[in-house]
Amino acid sequence: MLRRSFRKPYPVAVRGEGVYVWDADGNRYLDFSGSAAVNFIGHGVREIAGAMAEQARQLEFVHTSQFTTPVAEEFAQELLDFAGEHFRGGAVYFTCGGSESVETALKLARQYQVEIGQKNRHQILSRQQSYHGATLGALAVSGNRKRREIYLPMVREFEHTGVPYCYRCAFDCTDSCYHCGQQYAAVLEHSIEAAKGEAAGFIFEPMSGATLGAVTPPPGYLQAIAEICHRHGVLLIADEVMTGMGRTGRNFAVEHWGIAPDILITAKGLSSGYAPLGAVIASKKVVDAIAAGSGAFLHGFTYNAHPVSLAAGRAVLRRVRSVNLVHAADSEVAGTAGAALKIALESLRDLEAVGDVRGLGLLCGIEFVADKKTKAPFPPEKNFAGRVGQACLRRGLLVYPMQGCVDGVAGDHLLIAPPAVITPEEIGWAVEQIRAAVKESI
Ligand SMILES: Cc1ncc(COP(=O)(O)O)c(C=O)c1O
């Protein structure tokens, strides 16, 4: 096993149930980050395992160049319905995860432009301080400095524009960052113009995930971006690998801002971790261009639309609907898990080291600072978020620590993304552990 680190010991996980995971020594961990914002329905849901086993018994695999399957056709339709009216008449391409889905979306955007006669359009614009995956194409459009740095000589890059980050607003806005959102959108427009007719698409996370830690966009920003892309014939690609499938209290996060992307990417919560699964949901405009043009999408993985993964995804979506988990994640509705999480995390603001608490639904971030007044970050070598993460782990709590939110290197935050079945008592206990862990780590 080539592990993520040769220096760090890893507990051996053997069982999961609800919001808990157990290791081989019998230690119990509350999964307050859904691993990495993956688990949404809770661990150990037996009906998911049952659906997967049934599919494997019936038909484990066929290749998409030879067959389609009932599970693929039915789940694609269910997912289009879940994505809403804007995707009516569209189509879904299934993959094994987020990075594969991003690769697929980038190629789909390029092929769309070729099909409609815009053969010069091949650039994919993206944002700094973003993460779109580990493969080289996805890394090229990502802006996460640490995850990209050593691979940069290997990637082909296009323009990255800035991300509005209200806690550290570069414009000193006094209007909830409406002004700076418009400025960032204007920079995107300049980048599109500077690409001289070569921009094929623009990829963005509606809410920043791991890199900035649940930063929400300011009012008007995403609407301005969508309008600019539309006006310039640039496909709008929303990466909802982390924010999709209910996590923010809407089926997809773009619904908070009323924008309609041409291509929507999702993974993580799509299978809630029960199987490797991702999806690219393409709008009718994109699908029709290929169907009426060359007639074939020039792309494929051996394991795309794997029947057992799709059986898992279908059963997960059924579960999300039957126990109303999108509603549970909605932090704007009193009494939900989302609302309880928001209230509990806000209580951490009294800690000296907590600079900001942010997020929507069950995707939240806690940013740490060395000095609350100046917002100065801790020295990166202190690895403050990592220390808090380790202290949480010793207390039986799983969180997602990250560094680099300030400038790609400095800045510490925790990402919090529990399963939607978490109770207010479990949230209360978890937040107390974070409070203690922060104090221990100073
Ligand atoms: C927004 C976003 N896009 C893409 C990815 C890559 O997904 P995966 O790790 O499943 O390949 C991630 C992973 O964290 C993500 O957060």
Describe the model.
The chain is α/β, with parallel strands linked by helices and 442 residues long. It has 14 helices and 15 strands. It has helices at 34-37, 46-58, 70-83, 98-115, 136-141, 145-148, 178-194, 221-231, 284-292, 307-322, 325-329, 337-346, 384-394, 424-441; strands spanning 13-17, 20-23, 28-31, 91-95, 123-127, 160-161, 199-204, 235-240, 263-266, 278-282, 354-360, 363-368, 397-398, 400-403, 412-416. The strands form 3 sheets. The chain has a 7-stranded mixed beta sheet with strand order 4-10-9-8-7-5-6, with helices on both faces. A 4-stranded mixed beta sheet has the order 1-2-3-13. The protein has a 4-stranded antiparallel beta sheet with strand order 11-12-15-14. Helix 8 (221-231) links the parallel strand 7 and strand 8 (235-240). Helix 4 (98-115) packs across helix 9 and helix 7 packs parallel to helix 8 (221-231). The mean pLDDT is 97.
Count up the helices.
14
The low-confidence parts are: none
> In whole angstroms, how far apart are the ends?
34 Å
Structural class: alpha/beta
Mean pLDDT reading: 97
Strand content: 15-25%
Helix-strand string: EEEHHHEHEHHEHEHEEEHHHHEEHEEEH
Bound molecules: pyridoxal-5'-phosphate
Helix proportion range: 25-40%
Give a quick account of the main beta sheet: strands, pairing sense, barrel closure. Answer: 7 strands, mixed
Radius of gyration: 21 Å
CA-based shape = globular
Largest sheet, spatial ordering of strands:
4-10-9-8-7-5-6
How many E strands? Answer: 15
